[in-house]
Amino acid sequence: MSEQPASEYQQRHKPASEFESRDEYLNHELSIMSFKRWGINLPFKDYGVELEDWVPALAATIGKVVMVTAMAAAFAAQFGLTPEFVAENVRYELLIGAVFVLIFAAVLNPNTNLAGTHGPMIPLIPLIAAAGGHPLALGLMVAAFGLLLSATKGGSKLVNLTGEGVRGGLLIYLGAVGLIGQIGKLEIWAEGIGRGEVSFGVILATIVIYAYLARVQKRWLAIPLCSLLAGVVAFAMGTPFEFVTEPGLPEFSPFYWWGEDTGWKMGWPELSHYIAVMPYALLAVAMWSPDFLGHRVFQELNYPKKAKNVLMNVDDTMTVCSVRQGVGVFLGGSNLASSWGTYMVPAAIAKRPIPGGAILTGGMCFAAAVIGYPMDLAMWEPVLRVALLVGVFLPLLEAGMQMVPDNKSAQSAGICIFSCAFINPVFGWALTMLLDNMGFIGDKERSAKLPMMDKLSIPLAAFVVCVGALALVGQLPGIPALL
After folding, report:
1. Mind giving me the DSSP string for 37-55?
2. How many CB atoms lie within 10 A of CB 88?
3. 3-class SS of residue 115
4. Which pLDDT does position 483 carry in this prediction?
5. Where is this region: Disordered (predicted)?
């Protein structure tokens, strides 16, 4: 039997021992990979799996448990469902997510980021329920709008039209607000168990170890090391912890999950349910572009300039997120999909492409779901808050600051932060992109070179859609919901 010819990656690959530093080796790996779009890409044939891939995989698994738990619990609180429903649905979503990660990000299209959880939608779930929404109707509408945006390549177009100052301001706002929020939640939890000093000890230890990792240029180790340290410090200070989720598998039938007396106990949605969730679905997809933008920017900042072939494809990622959303919610899952930030951010810092860690992430999510006990550890407050702090929000803040090198960019960034604080990041991004491209703020020379379509038409359309969606669901201050 004749041997298969070596792939381009196998021909150009060199062992790490031939490079003077690990960083040089990782940069070389990024520069020699070129993935097949909607083809078959295999580990060790088209890309490698390295030690560094374990870091984003671990971070992604912790983040997935945290975010899906928050999403499922928010739905459960509105529809009167039990904690047992939340635990079983999180287990179910981990398995669904693992399958999609292994099929798409690891094999069919490694230029697509993993389909994670749409965190900014969690605070809107009470409004969705109050409007008479149905989780299945919401998920299917998000999938439909997402496929429409990806098919028209609207996502990548909006990313390309977002100037550096606007990008920097958006990342700074998201990072700063996230940092403050996570620290606040940790403090509230510590006070709630009567051990307020625990939050101080955990955060102080996290700052020290993160600063050291930054000094020795090993920030890609921040999530596992800081999360481990947070758990050890909290436990050493007398914080109680126990494993309660036993091994097992969830129910797999969508008829169970969408039954009248089982699962969600809501039955299948009717036409009125789809009408009620339409503005929220539109808003969810409108939030995708700034979210996806932030993740791709992280790759651009950390990868070598010639590593163009391994950058995240925004439109294809939207396609995968949309498909994962539609299939997952039809099967009975509670997740609302978006680009997986707790994977992409540490993967970019570790200078690793998407597929290597995707394989490990799929395996770890599957193992966590079946074993059960790792879910308890990942959901323990000191671990999950520190994982989000050092894995997502602090790197976002740092990346945003790197993108504001001059006064022109600082002006755009400042207006973006102001606009985001006024309403939310969707409004801030859409308004500042419009003002920046029209030349009212930022680099006027850049604006003068843009064609009218890019300068006004597309940014104005994005602003109208975003503000319209916000108005429909009552997210504009002082203005009641139009629906």
Report:
1. TTS---BTTTB---GGGHH
2. 20
3. strand
4. 67
5. 1-20
Q: What is the largest CA-CA distance in the chain?
A: 73
Yes or no: say if 136 and 258 are a contact pair by the CB < 8 Å rule.
yes
* Backbone φ and ψ of 339, nearest 5°: -65, 140
- Tell me the C-alpha distance between 465 and 378, whole Å: 37
Q: Residue 305 has what DSSP assignment?
A: T
Residue 304 CA neighbour count, 13 Å, CB half: 13
Output the pLDDT for position 3. Answer: 58
What are the tokens at 117?
A: 């959880």
Residue with tokens 């791709």: 296
Rounded Cα gap, residues 424 and 219, in angstroms: 29
**Closest-CA residue to 337 (of 292, 376, 294):** 292
Q: Which long-range contacts (CB under 8 A, 24 or more apart) does 241-247 make?
A: 241/380, 242/376, 243/373, 243/376, 243/377, 244/376, 245/87, 245/91, 245/372, 245/373, 245/375, 245/376, 246/372, 246/373, 247/370, 247/371, 247/372, 247/373
Residues of the chain with pLDDT under 70: 1-4, 483
Q: What pLDDT, on the 0 to 100 scale, is given for residue 4? A: 65
Please tell me the predicted confidence (pLDDT) of residue 199.
Answer: 94
339: helix, strand or coil? strand
Per-residue confidence (pLDDT) for residue 1, from 0 to 100:
46
| Residue carrying the six token digits 């607000």 | 177
Q: Are 117 and 336 in contact (CB under 8 A)?
A: yes
pLDDT of residue 456: 92
Name the burial class of residue 180, with classes exposed (0-12), middle (13-18) and buried (19+) by CB atoms within 10 angstroms of its CB. exposed
- Provide DSSP, 343-372: HHHHHHHTT--HHHHHHHHHHHHHHHHHH-
What gap in Å lies between CA 56 and CA 52, rounded to an integer?
Answer: 8
Q: Which residues contact 255 (CB under 8 A, 6 or more apart)?
A: none
Nearest to 138 by CA among 285, 346, 253, 19: 285
The residues spanned by each domain of the chain are 52-97+155-242+273-303+313-333+342-472
CA separation, residue 186 to residues 236, 272, 376 (Å): 17, 40, 17
